[in-house]
Amino acid sequence: MLKITELSAHYGSVQALRGVSLSVKTGEIVTLIGANGAGKSTLMNTIFGYPRASGGKVEFDGQNISNLPSHAIGRLDIAVVPEGRRIFQRMTVLENLLMGDTSGNRRTADDLERMYEMFPILRSRASQRAGTLSGGEQQMLAIGRALMSKPRLLLLDEPSLGLAPIFIKKIFSVIKELNEQLGMTILLVEQNAHHALRVAHRGYVLQHGQIALEGSGAELLANPAVRAAYLEGDTAQLDAA
């Protein structure tokens, strides 16, 4: 469904991605792990054209979308939950959810009901300003807003960042549910390697803007270099592997 080939990206004169290649097949959860500054969020942003790829290409369903403007990419069956959530804080929970419905269909009530069933707290907070929600509740809202467009591919950028353990558990439970029950294809960017690799079919390790390792989620969880670098906090170990 998503194929990235030799992708490079720059911020001015600084090269953030260096020939990154990865793929996400229909029905998979693929996770991308790495330390701060490795280029994870840059990769996610480059898929949507900001920054624009300076080399390589991004394909969605066989179509090269590397040179499409961001608004055109946004009309494809792709939804993103950005790092930091970026909800509309002065709008209500309900208004935020409705902003996610870009399909123009007439089943909004049914779609809202599905979001409320998945995230019951949002039902009771529907008329509350989104900016007054807790961090975990805001993350649920951001995911719900993205799902309102009925995407075939969901991009999640650091969904557990800054959340309490109870909300982290809930978020990863939802990710697994979306994939297993709805067959949703997911690209997950995460620093929480343990949780991410446990739910992923396959994973990639990004380091210094390049893919350092790849394998199944189970293989990467068992890899001594990955365990030392991302499960025990010693990033120097991966360089030596």
Automatic annotation (TrEMBL):
GO terms for biological process: L-amino acid transport. It comes from the Bacteria. Keywords: Amino-acid transport, ATP-binding, Cell inner membrane, Cell membrane, Membrane, Nucleotide-binding, Transport. SMART domains: AAA. SUPFAM superfamilies: P-loop containing nucleoside triphosphate hydrolases (SSF52540). Gene3D superfamilies: P-loop containing nucleotide triphosphate hydrolases. GO terms for molecular function: ATP binding; ATP hydrolysis activity; branched-chain amino acid transmembrane transporter activity. Coiled coil: none annotated. InterPro entries: AAA+_ATPase, ABC_transporter-like_ATP-bd, ABC_transporter-like_CS, BCAA_Transport_ATP-bd_LivF, P-loop_NTPase. Belongs to the ABC transporter superfamily. Residues 2-233 form the ABC transporter domain. This is Amino acid/amide ABC transporter ATP-binding protein 2, HAAT family.
